[in-house]
Amino acid sequence: MSITELDDTMVQNMAIGAAFTDYGGSISSLDFHRTDDLLVTASEDDSVRLYSIVDAILLKTMYHKKHGADSICFTHHPSSILCSSRYNLESTNESLRYLSMYDNRCLRYFKGHKKRVVSLCMSPINDSFMSGSLDHSVRIWDLRVNACQGILRLRGRPTVAYDQQGLVFAVSMEGGAIKLFDSRSYDKGPFDTFLVGGDTAEVCDIKFSNDGKSMLLTTTSNNVYVLDAYCGDKRCGFSLEPSSNITTESSFTPDGKYVISGSGDGTLHAWNVNMRNEVACWNSQIGATTCLKWAPRRAMFAAASTVLTFWIPNLSKLSNSPSTEVSAA
Description:
47% strand; single chain; four-stranded antiparallel beta sheet; mainly beta
């Protein structure tokens, strides 16, 4: 189902449309392709799985027993992905792999990180990508070459994100600080630094809204903040139930009007950013979610724990609402 325009009614009537229960462990990461209707997941059972989100079917499964599968993201090609390693980091230094899901091949290894990669993102405009690791470094890479292109060393758990235009990237560091860099001249240092006032918890996830005007931060203490991406002012903030050893994930809707998030108590929440109010709260049906993202071009989001769920509008309820426009895919 493609998006015309989201409103409170459509968001409130989201419900599980498909569930995949055959995972042998928690799903650690998931990502939507920017232009194709595909989703990829990485799980503690060492699997990488590719799904069609239109048909809600599993297209392919690959297992990576030697290195495991931890953080994951699509490259620009719909069958090529980046995946971070869960095992053997210290012995091999093979922290990242560039994989072809078409023919089950590893196209390239990227060596450098000494500890687990906790943040991974692809530039929306070229072959650059970034990784943040518990070894207190952010590394900048190019898909076409093995060697690291740049290193930022910092304190704390680093989280990285490109804006949707690929011109700016954000890096979180100790004490809840967010540093912004020009992606073309990051070696000159950050051009701005934001602090979330009063909250020094580490930031475990950053996302930019599609229009580049807002940044979404999720902290290790399960607080969610929306900041003005230009000046760093806090537009709104929400507190969620924490869960031991689980950091949840939040996501903007494609129009930037809503934020959705998991919570430690197994609920999912949606807020209207402009009105600063909660518009929906659902039982996730799968416990505390480990990852959650809204699809780039669809009226759907994915939420995961040891189960992967696709959430779509409940058409039987929406049909009674004349203000909501929905078009079939």
